[in-house]
Amino acid sequence: MTDLSIGRHADGNTASTDTAADINPHAVPGAEIIIEQLHKFYGSVKVLEDLDLHIQPGEFLAIVGRSGCGKSTLLRLIADLEKQSYGEIKFKSARHIREGITSDDIRVMFQDPRLLPWRSIEQNVQLGLPKDQHANAASMLEKVGLKDKAPLWPSQLSGGQRQRTALARALSHKPRILLLDEPLGALDALTRLDMQNLIEKLWTEQGFTAILVTHDVSEAVQLADRIILLDKGHIAAQFKVDLPRPRQKNLQFAELEQQVLNAVLAT
């Protein structure tokens, strides 16, 4: 595996990644994820092979790579939507080392918002929440700018508004880990930028660990603390995004974006 654009201290150790907890000390850090010797096979097809990855609590990680390299499969394994062929995926709570992480602590946001058309926007955000936590849904709708849309049906919203609803639904559960499987891929350019800013803002406020799968290298540089490139089931390269937030698309941003893009094209 090639390490590119990774900051290092004088003693040779990798520089620490700024996470949501570093930006907002009042945020509750997300979960640490430790992946060791992960393999995933579909019959004779090897999708992931001997993959090792350590994700810090509260880190924002982006995964890029060509179609079929295993990006979404890795996300589904972390979410326990599929089972690995062998290897381990371990979680550690940053709140308390003996406190376990369960499926309730992990939420997934897909490219399709997957809203129930027969339920209102507010009812969609309340899905899975106990009644005594319905206030969380109302609060998140306000945070994503949809407070006035609460009584409407999904069909009455734009694509961007439906994705905001899906984001509110995921975060109303106050997850330790948020998995984002190309959630902005179907949005127009301006709506996509608005959603990127919203996701970053809520990540900073809440402190969850975020993992984003994307084909958009610019989006990865815009949002992530670190970017990994998957190729044939392996981590081919990784990049530390050592740029201040909020990110500006300056020369340093463009250089890193081109560096990541060149690595993707070389796979």
Short description:
The chain is an alpha/beta fold. The chain contains eight helices and ten strands.
Structure write-up:
- With 267 residues, this protein is α/β, with parallel strands linked by helices.
- The protein is built from eight helices and ten strands.
- Strands 1-10-9-4-8-7-6 form a seven-stranded mixed sheet, sandwiched between helices.
- Helix 4 packs across helix 5 (159-171), helix 5 runs parallel beside helix 6 (189-206) and helix 7 crosses helix 8.
- The protein is globular and about 50 Å long.
- Strands, total number: 10
Helix content: 25-40%
Q: Into which percentage range does the β-strand content fall?
A: 15-25%
What name goes with the CATH superfamily of the largest domain?
P-loop containing nucleotide triphosphate hydrolases
Keywords: ATP-binding, Cell membrane, Membrane, Nucleotide-binding, Translocase, Transport
Family: Belongs to the ABC transporter superfamily.
GO molecular function, one term: ATP binding
Pfam families: ABC_tran
Features:
alpha/beta, 24% strand, 3-stranded antiparallel β-sheet, 7-stranded mixed β-sheet, 267 residues, 2 domains
Topology (elements, then pairings):
Blueprint (H helix, E strand, L loop, with lengths): L1 E3 L15 H4 L8 E11 L2 E11 L4 E5 L6 H8 L7 E7 L13 E5 L10 H6 L7 H10 L15 H13 L5 E5 L7 H18 L2 E5 L3 H7 L2 E6 L2 E7 L10 H15 L2
Helix pairs in contact: 4-5, 5-6, 7-8
